[in-house]
Amino acid sequence: MESQILTTPPNFAPATSEFDANAWMHVQLQRTEQALSAWVGVNAPANLGDAMRYAVLDGGKRLRPLLVLAAAQSVQGLPEAAIRAACAVELIHAYSLVHDDMPCMDNDVLRRGKPTVHVQFGESQALLGGDALQALAFELLTPSELEVPASVQAKLCRILAQAAGAQGMAGGQAIDLASVGKTLTEQELRHMHSLKTGALLEASVAMGVACATVPAPVQQALARYATALGIAFQVVDDVLDVVADAATLGKTPGKDAANEKPTFVSLMGLDAARSYANDLLEQALAALHDSGLQDVRALSALAHLVVSRSH
Q1: With contact defined as beta carbons under 8 Å apart, do 103 and 138 qualify?
Q2: Mean of the per-residue pLDDT values for the chain?
Q3: Over the stretch 122-148, which tens digit does the pLDDT of each residue have?
């Protein structure tokens, strides 16, 4: 698949001497939306493209693509590899939501403030749309070698496949479904979410890092950052499921409690869960400091965004 994306300066950042997190995110979100719009659902038959585009475009926080691009910026990675990785991880995330929302899984009717894909297009189109998004993710990671070196392609595909499969997101969802009505320890809950939610967030950072050649200590520090961030994201998600309304959250609140799913709030209490999220933020920021990288401002801003978000 040939690139249809406008060229971008190698440093990924707005032309300014002072770092403006909102301006940086605006630029990266524009790049991501442009790329997704150009690549998702193009020439898909029998209205399949409509379901694919509905699942991906015009919605979502795009945290995973932003993490890819921020990590790639921090290590001065290849821009073309980074934008493809950013889109690929978002497609895996989107496909997982399409499938998770279906009646055989969570049976939810609201996602990103609009009807879920199976409600809008029917279960068959939702299932096929999710399948097609998963396949497209890996197609984006394997362009011609003139665009992305084969060695980088292989690394990106391996990272994403491992994060999405049985030892990652899919495995975590299986544990989640098997844990309904059960009481989990904090360690068990952390393990479940480190797979279900954390694996793809960790992969986002790892994919950004894989766009360059990076010393092992730097990789390890950024991996610690991503691990803390992944758990923090889920803790905040559990808090919001209790305190936010549907209009703010963009999805049905209170589903976890109604379905008797274990959460950090049910295990720790609301105040302790909020405090835990802040502790995880400090761990993530300390890991960034330990990386020794000169510019981790975007990664730092994203960590703060995860913990302070309201939806």
Answers
A1: no
A2: 90
A3: 999 999 999 999 999 999 999 999 999
What percent helix, strand, coil does the chain show, rounded to 5?
65, 0, 30
21-308 has which CATH code?
1.10.600.10
* Cα distance between the two ends of the chain: 34
- Tokens describing residue 12: 């990924």
What is the β-pairing status of strands 114-115 and 110-111?
Answer: antiparallel
Among candidate residues 62, 64, 58, 129, the one with its CA nearest the CA of residue 99: 129
Distance CA 290, CA 34 (A): 34
Residue 2 tokens read as: 């040939």
Q: Write out the DSSP string of 175-244.
A: HHHHTTT----HHHHHHHHHHHTHHHHHHHHHHHHTTS---HHHHHHHHHHHHHHHHHHHHHHHHHHHH-
Q: How sure is the predictor about 248, in pLDDT bands with cuts at 50, 70 and 90?
A: low
Sign of CA dihedral 177, 166, 299, 148: negative
User: What's 274's DSSP letter?
Assistant: H
- 163-221 pLDDT, tens per residue? 999 999 999 999 988 988 888 898 999 999 999 999 999 999 999 999 999 999 999 99
CA dist., res. 45 & res. 23, Å (int): 38
Give me the percent of the chain exceeding a pLDDT of 90: 79
- Residue 83: φ, ψ to 5°: -70, -35
DSSP, residue by residue, 286-307: HHHHHH--S--HHHHHHHHHHH
70-99: average pLDDT: 98
For residue 44, the SS3 value is coil
- 8 A C-beta contact, residue 83 and residue 35: yes
